[in-house]
Design a protein that fits this description.
By secondary structure, the chain is α/β, with parallel strands linked by helices. The protein is built from four helices and five strands. It has one domain: Rossmann fold. The protein is 40% helix and 22% strand.
């Protein structure tokens, strides 16, 4: 399966997404913010990044642009419960998930992007 990075400032969200992805056989890395996520992506080169759009410090739009500017080849899923999700693809996200989402929706989106 794939190496996936989850970036979210909420511990419970990261833990939940991690459990869902690990239950499908993926290896999961975690970062609590955009800067840490970009650094971890550069160091480990995951196949996929799942990032929140609303975070303190570096919001999701800046995180996505930072990943793209760092020449990250990872596919990116943006997730949020707010209107900022509408612009995620403009900034380089490959897919979006509106919170709250079901495990099946996350796994289907992951499968669509990385097989």
């Amino acid at each position: 399966m794939a190496l996936i990075l989850v970036i979210d400032d909420h511990d419970l969200v990261r833990m939940t997404v991690k459990r869902i992805l690990e239950s499908a056989g993926h290896e999961v890395l975690e970062a609590a913010g955009g800067d840490a996520g970009i650094a971890l992506c550069q160091a480990r080169n995951p196949a996929l990044v799942v990032t929140d759009m609303v975070m303190p410090g570096k919001p999701g739009t800046e995180t996505i642009m930072g990943l793209r500017n760092a020449d990250a080849v990872a596919k990116i899923i943006a997730m949020s419960g707010g209107p900022e999700l509408d612009r995620a693809t403009e900034f380089g996200a490959d897919a979006v998930l509106e919170k709250p989402f079901r495990a099946e929706a996350l796994l289907a989106t992951v499968a669509k992007l990385i097989g």
